[in-house]
Amino acid sequence: MQFVGNLEVLNNEQWLMPLAIGKWATCEIIGHLIFWDQFLIEKRLPSFLLGTEKVVTPKVHEANATAASMSKEKLKGEVIHEFIEERQRLLTFINELSHEVFDQTFSIGKSHLTLSDYFKGLMDHDLHHFQQIEDFMMDIDKKG
User: Fold this and answer.
1) What is the DSSP string of 83-137?
2) Is the pTM of this model over 0.85?
3) Closest CA to 35 of 74, 71, 76, 88
4) Would you state the torsion angle of the CA atoms of residues 135, 138, 143, 144, taken in this order, to the nearest 10 degrees?
5) What is the band of 56 on the pLDDT scale with cuts at 50, 70, 90?
6) Which residues of 36-45 are buried (b: 16+ CB within 10 A; e: fewer)?
7) What is the DSSP string of 58-76?
8) Which is more confident, 109 or 96?
């Protein structure tokens, strides 16, 4: 949340600029993270906790493209605020789970994993995107 909050330093041009050729802009990355946080809270985690045989999965590329596109239509501050709000909501949800739940196995498609492993994968995903943004910001600083 702090990392994303610090993105306020980007001007609007930088916020909307692709990180590299063929890559998303910072706003699109944050927009897709918002979508997945909402999806986790509203669909995937409740489905898993209810013991539903198949955990709900959207069409990933479509969902990402829609979320990325929608983020470009919003103001930078609005996207940042929405990310922080949804991430806090997700953390609250996670903190209310019993410790035993984290060791239970569930399936997404053909993958079988524990909730702990799943959250580790999500953290790695976030860190990958945050590193991309950090590299982009360092390039901006170098260009002056």
Assistant:
1) HHHHHHHHHHHHHTS-GGGGG-EEEETTEEEEHHHHHHHHHHHHHHHHHHHHHHH
2) yes
3) 71
4) 150
5) low
6) bbebbbeebb
7) --HHHHHHHHHHHHHTS-H
8) 96
